[in-house]
Every structure is written in structure tokens, then in C-alpha cells.
Amino acid sequence: xxxxxxxxxxxxxxxxxxxxxxxxxxxxxxxxxxxxxxxxxxxxxxxxxxxxxxxxxxxxxxxxxxxxxxxxxxxxxxxxxxxxxxxxxxxxxxxxxxxxxxxxxxxxxxxxxxxxxxxxxxxxxxxxxxxxxxxxxxxxxxxxxxxxxxxxxxxxxxxxxxxxxxxxxxxxxxxxxxxxxxxxxxxxxxxxxxxxxxxxxxxxxxxxxxxxxxxxxxxxxxxxxxxxxxxxxxxxxxxxxxxxxxxxxxxxxxxxxxxxxxxxxxxxxxxxxxxxxxxxxxxxxxxxxxxxxxxxxxxxxxxxxxxxxxxxxxxxxxxxxxxxxxxxxxxxxxxx
Length: 336
Description:
- This protein is about 40% helix and about 15% strand.
- It is an alpha/beta fold.
- Strands 1-2-4-3-5-6-7-8 form an eight-stranded mixed β-sheet, with helices on both faces.
- Helix 1 packs parallel to helix 5, helix 3 packs across helix 4 (about 135-145) and helix 5 (about 170-195) packs antiparallel against helix 7.
- The longest helix is centred in the middle third of the chain and has 26 residues, at about 170-195.
């Protein structure tokens, strides 16, 4: 499924609609039971973020999820990286098992939280940051603010920015749909505040998708419980609202990551399920966005990943693991 962080139709489908599966779904992976409960809840100054670390070896690798996602997004990638390095994923404020955070939940707020988390959890610096989708914008902002603590960046299919350069009409239509999605999420937030999402009726019954048959029962129950509460919804709404501004901006000409090892992974099939009128514009914006991001570092590199959707961490996890290993190697050679 295409989940470009600025595309309203994709967001609405990803958050609210029921997932589709093959006729015969494999039995749930018991390893997913770990995501039905918190890992380590780390105090970052009066509130706690849920952190999941595994493996050993420096530099540590931090995984930043895409829009509306939490640490579960990395369940295929994290154990692979843990074979060679310490690797941590976490739930951003308001999602998963993390406490609510002050609004707005924009890239600056999330980058500041990540910085606080790394220090509060005593994770050794420098670290390699891996971001997916919206997470690429968060880790890039982190790199702008806290470059001294970084060993490298791996950016998994950064969302297209400034699509209006290629189709103002598509962006206008998308923005109108975006506003409808925000209105629907606002209804869900009100239902959550009234305690109505445990057994929702009417329109509120569409707020939480049915259980995922690929997940263990405990995980489905935990996800439902999280979405019954207001923090998930007002965090989601804030994310939608700030993304309207974030993704309409081009990559800043001032963004500069020096000689930091940086790999951009471009998904070949990111827009396969996008509406026809927007597919060309998004593909053009993707190409320009990725080119500009690569140019922010003298050690920037773009890799085209065949047979990959936007959710590369699910269908091509080894491409991410390889990129991380390459960046770790480059970071090590640079420090010698």
C-alpha cells in the first residue's frame, strides 16, 4: 500500500480502512507478541517514550517510523540489524506505548524528542539514524540541529515535496481530501474523548480498522486500546495538519549535511496505487526531492530499489539492512 505522508487518500485508507489479505493468511508470527506490550519506557523530562533496543555493537542505529506508525513498523528490519549493531526503534509521542506530547507534533518537536530520548537512554554517540517516509524529514531535521552526534543517515523513500511544481490541480484536490480526513479524525477524537471507541456505533465504527489476522490477538487488542484514547487522535490530527505545510515546501537550499554518509533509498513502485492524475506529478517530485536530498552531503548516494512499494521496510527489508551496513562502514572509515 502506498502511504506517502502527504497523500490524503492513502492516509485515510491506511488509518481507517480494513486491510486486505490473501484468502489464506499465514498463522500470526509469535515474535509479534513483543509489540503487544511496552519495551523500555524512558523518561525524557516529565513524560515517557517507549523504546525497544536489541543487539550490540557500535555505532548504534536508531529507527524512525513514518507517519501514523510506531516501532512495530520495523519488526522485520530491527532483528536483522541486531545481528551486527545495537539497534533501537521507538514510539513517537502520542503513538504506541509512548505518552502524549505537546502540540503541534511537527518535525521540530519530534527531532527534539528523539534527541532527548537518545540522551536519557544513554545511547552511545555517534548514532546512525534511519528514517522512513515522514521519518526521513524528522531525522534530517535532527541532523540539522544535532550533527555532532551523528555517524550517518539512511533515508527510506523520502516523501515527494513541492508537488505543486508539477501539478497544482492535483495538490488542490489532495488538500481538499486532506481536510475531509482531518474532519473525520476530529470526529474520532471526540468519540475517543467520550469513551465511545471501545464499542463504537455509527460513523465512529469506522475509526478503528478490524483486527489484523496476521497479528496475534494480544497485539490486535493493544492496538485497539491505543486507538480508543484521545492522544492517538489529536497526535494524528496534528501530524496531518503540519504535513500540509511540510510537504508543500521544497527541500531547503540551506540544508547541508557536510560529508555525512547518507543513503537515499528510492522505491521503484511507490506510486503504483496512486490515482492516475497524481502519479506522474508525484514521481517527478520524488525524483527531484531525492536528488536534492542526496546533494545535501558530499557523501550522498541514491539507490533505486526494484520491486519495492513505499513501505520498503516490509517488502524489501534487506535493502535497508544493506544500506545501514554500508553507512556504518563508511562512518568507521571516516573516523580513522
